[in-house]
Amino acid sequence: MTNNKNVLNWIEEMKALVKPDKVVWIDGSEAQLKELRDQALATGEMEALNPEKLPGCLLHRTAINDVARVEGRTFICSRRKEDAGPTNNWEDPQVMYAKLRTLFDGAMQGRTMYILPYCMGPIGSPFSKVGVELTDSIYVVLNMDIMTRMGQQAFDQLGDTSNDFVRGLHSKAKMEEENRYIVQFPEDNTIWSVNSGYGGNVLLGKKCFALRIASYQAKNEGWMAEHMLILGLENPKGEIKYVCAAFPSACGKTNLAMLIPPKKFQDAGYKVWTVGDDIAWLRVGPDGRLWAINPENGFFGVAPGTNMKSNPNALISTQKNTIFTNVVHNLDDNTVWWEGLDKNPPKNALNWKGEKWDCTDGSKGAHPNSRFTAPAVNCPCISSEFNNPNGVPISAIIFGGRRAKTAPLVYQARDWKHGVFVGSTMASETTAAAAGAVGVVRRDPMAMLPFCGYNMGDYWAHWLEMGEKLGDKAPKIFNVNWFRTDDEGHFIWPGFGDNMRVLNWIIDRCEGRAEAVETPIGYEPKPEDIDVEGLGDVTTDTVKDLLTVDKALWKEEVKGIKEFYAKFGDKLPKELESQLATLEANLDK
Ligand code: OXD
Ligand code: MN
User: Fold this and answer.
1) Measured between alpha carbons, how far is 289 from 470 in angstroms, rounded to an integer?
2) What spacing in Å lies between the alpha carbon of 257 and ligand 2's midpoint?
3) Which of 202, 207, 254, 448 to mutate to test the pocket of ligand 1 (most atoms within 8 A of CB)?
């Protein structure tokens, strides 16, 4: 499939290490995929679901101890510890390679090694990059087929001489939790993942390549790899403006990316188009603006909570050619179910562990991190620009988190530098759903804490440099918070489709159509500029409350930021120190 010596030599080296019985080159053809599906069905690795209700859909269960990304076992192995920085696990690359070699040694004996070339980004796009994953898992091959452009087309994109491909090695090995490692070697373009079979740990194109390795490449090559959705907002005149948004997990990125506007807006002709729901690669275009592509080709979404009200577009995306992982298996009609899908849990069903499940015993049927892997083409609101090799021009970048009190509904950064400060101080409060105390603030700069492949201080410096390059063509930067609560802990803002009302103000600001009010933290809308028609109890007065900036709370916030920044020592850009000083001074005015 390729004559590229860099690829062939590396594969020989890895083969000698993992010693597979058999090797299969994945060309991406339907005939080959069918054969692999049949094989997975025969061994029980996958189960075929109801061909009428869920055509082409498969069900998979992971090992019980292997259900999520393992941040504690994820490493950035740069040669120097300081290049991984204080927020990443680090080990000396030589030490780590030696340790992993013993785990990979003979790991594929008695198994087949699949050689899986894939392209992140549209084929033929100057943004796109190629990876090759060697894996002993059919589940990985079938998921990567949905999530990436996989097969011969990827080798064609790489060409016969290039050495610019990411070398991914994955083996389920013995599935030992204590020997599970997800390791990025950014300076070697290499990812080694062992003893896991769960999505985020083993679909190496996603978090490992498109964020951790790509963020490092992006710094060196002058672009950006970000944990951001990309959406297009079409107005009644048919003009579409694109925005990117970065939120930590459990803050509704997929929901915002696939938003359905409130009726009033729909009637007027507003539409939202999805370009991506998780990752954006951004470059300065020939016109000096920032352009974005989604490097992925599908959605690896959390199933629980997805329903016809919260996100109909996501649910519809999962109705064919989708892989479900760790959800409930409804045995009556051979379909799937999860908490929050509807109010009718199946009576005759297996839970995510494959055990008979009694929906009345209070136990969860689906794992809280159960997933769907759905092709982007299934999404009813997929953007016509999804495959555009040049991407889409970005008008605004939106940061956000889950903050009960501190952050207002929306504010705009004064300029790019201030926006980098806003992103670097991003935080979210833990919810009752997660172990540990509720309401604890966790810093998650640009939502990249688990995904930045190098020192976060250098990452902020890179953001500041990108701002220099973009000059007055830089997207405007905003912060949103859908999660402010009243004294009883209820969310005040309705969220979901109504977030469109805030997006509209954001676009109006970018287009110079809306005014703003200066506050100590940045520009805010005039409350009457957020359209609340049809929202019932939520009035312009409510919006006014949602926009208050409580100086006492913000002074506490400043303390938290100082503590966090202190970790970075002299890697903290001076500009961010001075932004923090400005915020402090503004709060004292
Ligand atoms: C995540 C994901 O964990 O997208 O951020 O799966
Ligand atoms: Mn994500």
Assistant:
1) 7
2) 12
3) 207
What is the pairing mode between strands 112-120 and 129-135?
antiparallel
Predicted confidence (pLDDT) at residue 52 exceeds the cutoff of 80: yes
Residue 356 · residue 350 · CB < 8 Å: yes
Which residues are catalytically annotated?
Answer: 251
Whether the CB of 69 sits within 6 Å of ligand 1? yes
Residue bearing tokens 């016509």:
384
d(CA 462, CA 523): 25
Tell the burial category of 169 from Cβ atoms under 10 Å away from its Cβ (0-12, 13-18, 19+): buried
Structure tokens that stand for 435 in this block:
């172990």
Q: Which ligand neighbours the alpha carbon of 198 most closely?
A: 1
Q: Which are the contacts of 213, defined by CB distance < 8 A and separation ≥ 6?
A: 166, 184, 186, 189, 191, 453
pLDDT of residue 250: 76
Local confidence band at 431 (pLDDT 50, 70, 90 cut-offs) = low
What percent of the chain has a predicted confidence (pLDDT) above 70? 98
Answer for the pair 127, 163: CB distance below 8 angstroms, yes or no.
no
For residues 399 and 423, is the Cβ–Cβ distance under 8 A? yes
**Distance between CA 407 and CA 517 in Å, rounded?**
16
**Ligand number with the minimum distance to the CA of 370:** 1
Give the tens place of pLDDT for each residue, 327-340: 999 999 999 999 99
Residue 465 CB neighbour total at 10 angstroms: 13
Mean pLDDT, residues 24-44: 98
d(CA 136, CA 166): 18
pLDDT of residue 209: 98
Residues 6+ apart with CB under 8 A from 228: 244, 245, 246, 276, 278, 279, 280, 292, 397, 447
432 has a pLDDT exceeding 70: no
pLDDT in tens, 568-578: 999 999 999 99
Q: Supply the pLDDT for residue 436.
A: 55
Look at residue 215 and give its three-state secondary structure: helix
* DSSP code string of 268-307: HT-EEEEEESS-EEEEE-TTSSEEEE---SEEEEE-TT--
Residues 6 or more apart whose Cβ sits within 8 Å of residue 227: 211, 246, 278, 279, 446, 447, 448, 451
Decide if 446 contacts 246 (C-beta within 8 A): yes
CA torsion, points 195, 200, 203, 207, in degrees to nearest 10? -120
Which of 151, 146, 121 lies closest to 385, judged by CA? Answer: 121
Dihedrals phi, psi of 168, to nearest 5 degrees = -110, 130
Mean pLDDT, the chain, integer: 96
Which pair of structure tokens corresponds to residue 285? Answer: 């275009």
Strands (E), 331-449: 335-337, 349-350, 356-357, 371-375, 392-400, 410-412, 427-429, 441-443
Determine if ligand 1 sits within 6 Å of the CB of residue 295.
Answer: no
Q: Which residue's CA lies nearest to atom 4 of ligand 1?
A: 278
Compute, in angstroms, the gap from residue 288 CA to the centroid of ligand 1: 31
Cα 245 to ligand 2 centroid, rounded to whole Å? 12
Half-sphere exposure of 421 (CA within 13 A, CB side): 23
